[in-house]
Amino acid sequence: MQLDVLNEQGQASTKVDAPDTVFGRDYNEALIHQVVVAYQANARQGTRAQKDRSAVRHSTRKPFRQKGTGNARAGMTSSPLWRGGGKIFPSSPDENFSHKINKKMYRAGIASILSQLTREGRLAVVDAMKVDSPKTKQLAQRFRDMKLDSVLVIADEIDENLYLASRNLGNVLVIEPRYTNPVSLIGYQKVLVTKGAIDKLGEMFA
Fold first, then answer.
1. Which structural domain, as residue segments, surrounds residue 162?
2. Phi/psi of residue 34, each to 5°?
3. What is the pLDDT of residues 24-65, one digit of tens each?
4. How far apart are CA 93 and CA 89, in angstroms?
5. Residue 169: C-alpha distances to residues 1, 140, 145 (Å)
6. CB neighbourhood size of 50 (10 A)
7. Does residue 80 share a domain with residue 175?
8. What are 153-169's pLDDT values in tens digits?
């Protein structure tokens, strides 16, 4: 299939060939959902720690006598029913949130996202993405000229000028093809791919 190549004004000037196996696949919503959930789950860290009834600070003394008070029976104040007591099923730092997903499914999910972005007109190609100096203002003006507000750039090469110019733009992300992930692809309004990155994406996700 062919993809639009944008000029400096953000208008489609020419076409470029792209592999159908990556940019022309059918839309698979269930697979994309599974890939996105797995990616986000695998990024979670088990940093929560709560105390059970054996870890809270408490006395083993019976708070009041067993009968005659009208209250429910109580053995010690560490009970989860009491304020200040332990949790019944506490969160642990070694909690595992990871989801297993096969490499073949992950590649197919990324290709399905790229294909859907192409059909929606949210994915386009640029000859190259370079700036003369590490100036955020210069890169921001370039995207304004192309009428782009929220953009993900997949570049085959990222030099120091481009990295420094883009890192302070909150609505712009510049990555190499190997760092392509489902969350970034669906999180930006427009995806720009350099001509050199098309072949790399084809090798990785075909």
1. 2-44+97-205
2. -65, -40
3. 999 999 999 999 999 999 999 888 899 999 999 998 999 999
4. 13
5. 32, 8, 16
6. 13
7. no
8. 999 989 999 999 999 99
